[in-house]
Please model this.
Amino acid sequence: MTIRIFSDKADLAREAAAQAAGLIQRAITERGAARILAATGESQVGFLDALVRWPGLYWPKVEMFQLDEYIGLPANHPASFRSYLLDRLIRPSGMEKYHLLDGEPDPAATCERVGRLLAAAPVDVAFAGIGENGHIAFNDPPADFETEAPYLVVSLDEACRRQQVGEGWFRTLAEVPEQAITISVRQLIKAKAIVSVVPDARKAPAVARCLEGLISPEAPASVLRIHPEATVYLDNASAALLSPETLQPGRFSP
Model:
């Protein structure tokens, strides 16, 4: 795992997009196509905006899978991750091949159908954030580090649901769904590379816990530390609680 820290969020987004674009382009050059996993949330907005504007990427050669989605939330709801990806990635890029997660009416069938497609071939790059409770995708603590299922149905803890209210996606906690579909931890780390964009001070406690504590289901995003091609993009605020030892060059070399 590599950590990169920026003083400016726009620079962070641009550098993360540059890495992601390079990985996508390399896959297209080598195999004629690229497969990606796309994350959502407030932390990903600047990154996705920079990525869809990246010059020279031929998006019809990119196949996208969704990282997670609420159960029971209509696709036209403002907080729907399907809506988010259509507005911020799929339509602006001109992408033609994508697999969205329908959390209604049969989440288990969605997990099976999309999971089978996802597991059929390697993913070139996965985008992921780190939640305020340390979650990665919607794997809240304690996360399931053992299941081999590509996607699973999970219950969301209160901290996760409160984050969604805090980011403005819902007006009240009662409006936030209590369950979601998420990619599993094991499936996520099968990606050849992971680009994790994690700005803002509110993420600092989780960043410190996941990058300095035990690699544990209690800190789900700590799993990034075992991936040799994971890069975590922080700003000064989200990195504020990390120790100098953590930031030493080579600290996370595999």
Summary: The chain has a mean pLDDT of 95. The domain at 2-235 is CATH 3.40.50.1360 (Rossmann fold).
